[in-house]
Request: fold
Amino acid sequence: MSNVANGAIAKASHRKKIHDWIVVIILLVLLIAAFTVSANTGTIRLLPMELFRTLFGQGTPQQELILFEFRLPRMVISILIGAGLAVSGCIMQGVSRNSLADPGILGINAGAGLMVMLFVLLFPSMQTMNSLFLLPASCTHRIGSGCYFDLCSFLQERRRHFSDKAIAERDWGSGGHQCCHDHDDSQIDT
Reply:
């Protein structure tokens, strides 16, 4: 490569790094702004200066109670839930090798909905107990989504098995014995 090409690649790489840092800084500023707005949401308002003073231990006991016991845990949990959803989305996209993957593609939503519907139909008396109804319903939707995902994975594996078998039979049937050394002979049923 010429020096001009190397210089252009280095310049493009430097621009990309700067762009990435700008995006990170903008996202951090938006996170701080959302943090400030969320801390002020409620019947008792905390001004931004009161908020930062309370964060650094110089607020009144009432401000500390409001911030540390009620609002800050809610904000931290929200951030952690968002990060968890982002990671699970990345894992799903990586596993399915599809950048547009979502839980609906693998049938997770359908399995969860089916199990919750069956739970509601089979145990109608549980609906009257509000808080006690949520725990079994939550467990059944997790069981349903897991079973549906397992079923989809099983069927995908069977399809791949039959596909390999069809390739092997095609190669044997057409006299193409040179291709069959790639396939496991134990998978061929005679």
